[in-house]
Write a structure and sequence with these properties.
The chain has 131 residues and is mostly helical. 85% of the residues lie in helices and 0% in strands. The chain contains four helices and no strands. The longest helix is centred in the middle third of the chain and has 63 residues. The radius of gyration is 31 Å and the shape is rod-shaped.
Length: 131
């Protein structure tokens, strides 16, 4: 912005002593103030998206835990009647949960790390629409 003013004045032969430095300083100050406001608004917007996604994931995890508990309780009831012993049904359900835990641990990068990194990078590194 300042270079454009300087080049314009040099092209038309305007003397550099005729520049109104007070007006130039006021315009530069206004420009940087607007840029700072834009930066704050962008940060607030991205933080709101990040926090809402975090809240959504927390709600899904809580509801999913209750659903999983009820499904495994029903599975234990069915297995207990089929096997004739409750402790065997509990052992089978625990083994299924352990296998599920091992699968999540084995694929944690594909299931957890990569999607979170992709979401955050798209959120914070997204190019502006007007550029």
């Amino acid at each position: 912005m300042l270079w454009a003013v300087w080049l314009t004045r040099m092209r038309f032969g305007i003397d550099m002593n005729d520049i109104d430095y007070k007006k130039l300083f006021t315009e530069a100050r206004r420009f940087f103030s607007m840029e700072w406001d834009y930066t704050k608004l962008t940060a607030v917007e991205k933080l709101a998206v990040l926090l809402s996604a975090t809240a959504f994931v927390a709600v899904v995890i809580i509801i999913g835990t209750f659903v999983q508990h009820h499904l495994f309780t029903a599975l234990i009831g069915v297995l207990a009647t089929a096997l004739g012993c409750a402790w065997g049904a509990h052992l089978i359900a625990a083994a299924l949960l352990l296998v599920l835990l091992l699968v999540v641990f084995a694929f944690k990068r594909q299931l957890i790390v990569d999607p979170v990194a992709r979401f955050v990078s798209k959120l914070f590194l997204k190019p502006d629409d007007n550029e």
